[in-house]
Amino acid sequence: MSTWGPFSVQGKNVVVTGGAMGIGFGIARRFVEGGANVLVVDVDERAAMAAAEKLAAGPGKVAALALDVGADDAGKRAVQRCVERFGGLDVLVNDAGIFPQVPMLKMTQEMFDRIYRINLRGLAFMSQQAGLQFEKQGKGGNIINIGSVDSLHPSMVGLAGYDASKGGVLMFTRNFALEMAQYGVRVNAILPGGVTTEGASKPLEGSGMTAEQQKAMMDGFIKAKIPMRRMGDPDDIATVAVFLASSAAAYMTGAHVVVDGGMLLT
């Protein structure tokens, strides 16, 4: 792994929330490939175990933990398991999130609260527990939050709750970076655009459109909105996460990295 030079993550102990599939799994895979030890955290226990099995052949060690990041003790449990399993914590990647497409005029208070509980509250208190562990260890640390291009600009009607939560992720990232800098802890955010994942198609479920109609709609969106003419892949986000966790990004904190194929340019 020394061939990765300043981008090396070898030997780092990493927690990835939402790590069983999509962007989270892509991030976990790249860290394991780089020789890091990864705790895959996901609300779906079966999926978390399956992800850990898929990654078991990599040079890094892998463990799984079934956990709802919105639970009050989620951060403490995740950090404790990582320390017990690998001996410490070096990197937290907050990827877990939900994005129900519900117009605000039809939004229930329960749904709005659920979005915030997972996307922002869960991320914040997961970060808190990681920060406490980093302070205890006394050797710095790294937190990488997965926001969205919707942290900066709304992409469509029906994501008011999601967009509000992701806007909060960006500001939380900046403020917590300010708070944690004294401990040598860097806190940054990645803002993905459209990424092809298992969850990306869920807003289309129940739309009544045929597969051909869905494809035509997506092709039109790509042509009109993404200058690079393709959707993102989880690995497009994963490689940026590895960069932010490595010494190559040693002077970056409170920053956001947009990875959207140029979507915000249109």
Could you state the CATH homologous superfamily?
NAD(P)-binding Rossmann-like Domain
Helix percentage: 40-55%
Radius of gyration based on Cα positions: 18 Å
CATH arch. level architecture: 3-Layer(aba) Sandwich
CATH topology: Rossmann fold
Which spans have pLDDT < 50 for at least 5 consecutive residues? Answer: none
Alpha carbon gap, first and last residue? 39 Å
Strand content: 5-15%
Averaged pLDDT: 94
**Helix/strand order:** EHEHEHEHEHEHHE
Q: Give the helix/strand class.
A: alpha/beta
Spatial ordering of strands, largest sheet:
3-2-1-4-5-6-7
How many strands, what sense, and barrel or not for the largest sheet?
7 strands, parallel
CATH level 1 name: Alpha Beta
**Total discrete domains:** 1
Number of strands: 7
Shape: globular
Task: Write structural notes for this entry.
This protein is α/β, with parallel strands linked by helices and 266 residues long. It has seven helices and seven strands; from the N terminus they run βαβαβαβαβαβααβ. It has a seven-stranded parallel β-sheet, with helices on both faces. The model has no long low-confidence stretch (mean pLDDT 94).
